[in-house]
Amino acid sequence: MTYFVLCIHNHQPVGNFYHVIEECFEKAYWPFLKTISRYPSIKLTLHNTGFLLDWLIENRPEYIDLLKTMVEAGQVELMGGGYYEPILSVIPEVDRLNQIKMMSDRIFEVFGTRPKGIWLAERVWEPALPTTLKKAGVEYLLLDDYHFVKSGLDREELGGYYITEDQGKIIKVFPGSEMLRYLIPFRPVEHLEEHLKGLAGFLRLGNAAIYGDDGEKFGSWPGTHKWVYDEGWLEAFFKMIEKNLSWLRPVTMSEFAGGEEHLGRVYLPTTSYMEMGEWALPATASRTYTELVEEMKSWNDGPRIRRFLQGGIWRNFFSKYPEANWMHKRMLLVSKALNERMERTVLVDNITKARKCLFMAQSNDAYWHGIFGGLYLPHLRRSVYENLIKAENLMDSESFANTPADEPAVSVIKGDFDADNNEEIAIRTRDLNLFLSPRRGGSIVEWDFRPAAVNLSNTVSRWYEGYHNKLESVAGEEGRGEAKSIHEMVKVKEKGLEKYLKYDKFQRTSLLDHFLGGEESLKAFFANDHKELGDFHTGEYKNEVKDGVVELCREGKVNGKGVSLKKWISMDGDNSFRIDYSIAPLEKGVFPEECRFGVELNVILPGCDGPLCYYELVPNSVGAVDTGLGTSVEANEVEKISLVDKFSGVILTIGVDRPATLWSFPIYTVSLSEGGFEKIYQGSCLLFLFPLAGAEKRKHGIDIGFTVKCESIEGVK
Q1: CA trace torsion 129, 132, 138, 141 (10° rounding)
Q2: How confident is the model at residue 482 (pLDDT cuts 50, 70, 90)?
Q3: pLDDT for 447 beyond 70
Q4: What are the residues whose beta carbons fall under 8 Å from the beta carbon of 32, sequence distance 6 or more?
Q5: What is the dihedral of CA 631, 634, 640, 643, to 10 degrees?
Q6: Position 330 pLDDT exceeds 80
Q7: Please, what is the Cα angle at 339 between 334 and 345, to 5 degrees?
Q8: pLDDT of the residue at 189
């Protein structure tokens, strides 16, 4: 007898668009459940992540009703996990335990049963996890056979589950078959049947075929709905199983674990699934790794060597993308503050709501990038920050309640917030959070408008990705949106994307200070082909805090000669702040003729470059009533600019105390997803330029002032 263990994982990230979830439901989740319900002899272990489960309960009760019936009949076993699908190993243990408990409680509330196993988000395993999982009452979890092969086992030894432990805390671990993931549902059912029949002679240990993978493959992946449903693959799959029940027995994971002995003890390395190891590497290494894996397919010893080759680990994303690291460390700050408040607050309801917001901000998708990761998706990053800011608002409601509304409440805190061994500075009011990094050009790395729960600095830089060579290699080829890559046919969602392959040399933050020659242009600055005359934009600034004002100063070089630059950031009410600059030469002949000083801001609004977002300039020198955020702007004598977002109801206004030249352009990244190559708006870069002519004749150089105000638009949500 060969046991067949079928496990399906359905997931939607917090913050995903309603229409995307709805499409996945109609194309995959609902037809799959209806189809398997007609085959009661086929058992299923099913995981719906918490955000998706809530959506189903609220919007598709017919799915919940059918699932209840199948659970009660014993056909479906429900699997738990972290409620909002966090990477468990990178969130505090108290949050791990509470997320797992929250999921278990919700499943019990709706279905009357508690899960025994969990789905581990992105199969990110670290050896210390069993201690946490045992505390949470977890008995088993599913990983990939890749994890087990990396520990030294052969695939012939993976016909069942193993036990592993940390500090004596035992957990059962199942190895999901890589071969089955490639067969189901992508190959003809006859190939799958042949594979299953051959397992009895292949397996040396155990007698189970174990499959665990994403439910979206059954209909919502490109091209799969037609294959799986219209062309009858899924019906044929289930009929094949029914036909072979004399030797193939479908079971749930708990049934198998309860009726079969474990195959032995195993200690798994820190890893995830095979593709994640490729994506987690730095871009150049990722490209090399991918090419090497492909090359080894033609080697005589390729498979033997391949089993010992491993890419990066999931935590590498925090070094690969500074934006991911900052977001993660901000999450840890909120978690720490929240858990410290849990026992000493009087507003228990607020803390309960804040904890839910924190858990939603731990949804893993926005923290990483691969074909499925969502770091490059602004709406997923926005959701993380929205929930973190909401959690802080709920926690701070106590302290702000004791401060008169007409009295500014300003606090300035120093600390190493992003774990880079350098101090950052946080300035907080009722309406704003500003996080400053003296080490990174004295810049603003996060800029929150708290009433709308929006991080206006939620941009992502144009980083080089290892797969960009695939797009470069097909530039100029004719076709209908498809291009031949090294490994497969890769779709390109629009022509000309190679034009956007421009790369940034550093993270896009705000208040970056530039010294540019008169010959420089907007085009060159956009493409990073310009020449920096100074060393201020990436230099380290000294800092001092006095009476709520942050002073940042640096003595650096412009054109090889000394310059002193100071900037003061002060709050000007709850929803506005001011930046004052002083630039003074320390030597003669510092500034070349036509040298300009530039202040760079990088901002993004929730509506991105959509039709409800636009610029308003004063004076309006571009000859238009409004200009969309997806266009470039070059204007002279600008005194004020507003970025208007009627989608979220937020308006950001920046004024200067002397007319400036403004260069502005949209930041587009080019990334690869399951749908193909696409360009994505990541924010707008605004560079305010001021001439330095005559600055050396003044004792103190020149002074420049900015006022920045964030408001909610009346009448818009």
Answers
A1: -10
A2: very low
A3: yes
A4: 8, 215, 218, 219, 234
A5: 10
A6: yes
A7: 105
A8: 97
pLDDT score, position 697: 60
**Percentage with pLDDT > 70 across the chain:** 93
Active-site residue 214, yes or no?
Answer: yes
Token pair 């059954």 in the structure block, residue: 218
Q: What is the pLDDT of residue 145?
A: 97
Q: Catalytic annotation on 637?
A: no
* Residue 293 neighbours by CB under 8 Å, 6+ apart: 278, 306, 309
Burial of 623-657, coded b for 16+ CB within 10 Å and e otherwise, reads eeeebebbeebebeebeebbbbbbbbbbbbbbbbe
Q: Are 37 and 235 within 8 A, CB to CB?
A: no
CA distance readout (Å), 345 to 41, 96, 102, 214:
52, 22, 21, 41
Which one from 54, 93, 166, 214 is the annotated catalytic residue?
214
Q: pLDDT, tens digit, for every residue of 638-653?
A: 999 999 999 999 999 9
- Tokens representing 443? 């810049």
pLDDT tens per residue, range 562-579 = 999 999 999 998 999 999
Residue from 77, 95, 122, 213 carrying the catalytic annotation: 122
In this prediction, residue 486 carries a pLDDT of: 27
Question: Where exactly does CATH 3.20.110.20 map onto the chain?
Answer: 2-269
In angstroms, the Cα distances linking 424 to 438, 441, 509, 564 are 7, 12, 14, 21
Beta strand 549-558 with 561-571 is antiparallel
Give the number of C-alpha atoms closer than 13 A to the C-alpha of residue 42, restricted to the C-beta side: 21
On the question of pLDDT at 445 being above 60, the answer is: yes
At residue 700, does pLDDT exceed 70?
no
CATH 2.70.98.10 residue spans of the chain: 503-712
**Tokens of residue 449, six digits:** 């408008």
Using DSSP, state whether 675 is helix, strand or coil. coil
| Residue 483: band (very low, low, confident or very high) from pLDDT cuts 50, 70, 90 | very low
For residues 491 and 473, give the distance between their C-alpha atoms in angstroms, rounded to a whole number.
Answer: 13
pTM over 0.85: yes
Query: Could you report the per-residue pLDDT of 586-616, keeping only the tens digit for each?
Result: 888 888 888 999 999 999 999 999 999 999 9
- The b/e string for 215-245 (b: 16+ C-beta within 10 A; e otherwise) is bbbbbbbeebbebbbeeebbebbbeebeeee
Burial 109-147, CB ≥16 within 10 A → b, else e: ebbeeebbbbbbbbbbbbeebbbbbbebebbbbbbbbbb
Pair 368, 385: CB distance under 8 Å: no
Rounded-to-integer distance, Cα 381 and Cα 545, Å = 31
∠ Cα 366 372 373 (to 5°): 20
What are the tokens at 53?
């489960």
Q: Does domain 503-712 have CATH number 2.70.98.10?
A: yes
DSSP string, 500-542: G----SS---BSEEEEE-TT--HHHHHTT-S--SBS-SSS--E
Three-state SS for 307? Answer: coil
Query: For the domain with range 2-269, which CATH number is right: 3.20.110.20, 1.10.520.10, 3.40.50.300, 1.10.599.10?
Result: 3.20.110.20
Residue tagged 């550093």 (tokens): 506
Q: How many CA atoms lie within 13 A of 389 on its CB side?
A: 25
What's the mean per-residue pLDDT of the chain? 92
Is 622:603 a contact under the CB 8 Å cutoff? no
What are the structure tokens assigned to 204, written together?
A: 């040396």
